[in-house]
Amino acid sequence: MLIHKDKMMFRDCNKSLNSEKGKEAQKNNDGYRKLKNDIKEKGIINPILCIEENNMYKICIGMRRFIAGLDLGMIKFNIKVLPNDTVDLLIKEKKQYRHTDVQ
Question: CATH code at 87?
Answer without folding.
Answer: 3.90.1530.30
